[in-house]
Amino acid sequence: MLRNFNQPILGIDNEELKEKDIVVTLETVVVNALLTQDPNDTTVTGTEKAKRFTLAMKIHDTKDSQVDITAEEISKIKELVGKYYTALVVGRVYDLLEQKIEEVKNVTV
User: Fold this and answer.
1) How far is residue 35's CA from residue 70's CA, in Å, rounded to a whole number?
2) Residue 66, beta-bridge partner list
3) Pairing mode, strands 66-68 and 22-23
4) What are 43-85's pLDDT values in tens digits?
5) C-alpha distances in angstroms, 25 versus 4, 6, 39, 42?
6) How much is the pTM?
7) Tell me: the pLDDT tens digits for 81-90?
8) In this structure, which long-range contacts are made by residues 82-87, counting pairs with CB atoms below 8 Å and at least 24 apart in sequence?
9) How far is CA 69 from CA 4, 38, 102, in A?
10) Is residue 8 within 8 Å of residue 17, measured between CB atoms?
């Protein structure tokens, strides 16, 4: 499934969220969530960490705004974003991940 990870994350006021004057994008949030680990969670295996890293690199390194990811990968992203981010960011990320690429119009960052 194609998803556009260059989309901005919007605040409650529908304005782009910024960190140090840089727009926070879906890519930023997702890659950070994939690469973060709860230090108290010792159940994550090396294999799982490697899968997360590979997916993070796939999303980060794609020069095109469209990334082809599986339903399983979307599910993993949602799980991790839900664990590490606030309700506002989680809600926005879930909405963006559920959009089909055709639904995204005129998104510029």
Assistant:
1) 18
2) 4
3) unpaired
4) 999 999 999 999 999 999 987 778 999 999 999 999 999 999 9
5) 10, 6, 25, 29
6) 0.86
7) 999 999 999 9
8) 83/33, 83/38, 84/32, 84/33, 84/36, 85/29, 85/33
9) 10, 24, 15
10) yes
21: left (phi over 0), alpha (psi -120 to 50) or beta: left
Distance of CA 78 to the CA centre of its chain: 8
Contact by Cβ (8 Å): 1, 22: no
Phi first, then psi: what are they for 55, rounded to 5°?
A: -65, -40
Domain boundaries along the sequence of the chain: 2-11+21-103
Amino acid identity for residue 86 in this structure = T
Q: SS3 string of the chain?
A: CEEECCCECECCCCCECEECCEECEHHHHHHHHHHCCCCCCCCCCHHHHHHHHHHHHHHHHCCCCEEECCHHHHHHHHHHHHHHCCHHHHHHHHHHHHCCHHHCCCCCC
* 48 alpha carbon, distance to own chain's centre: 17
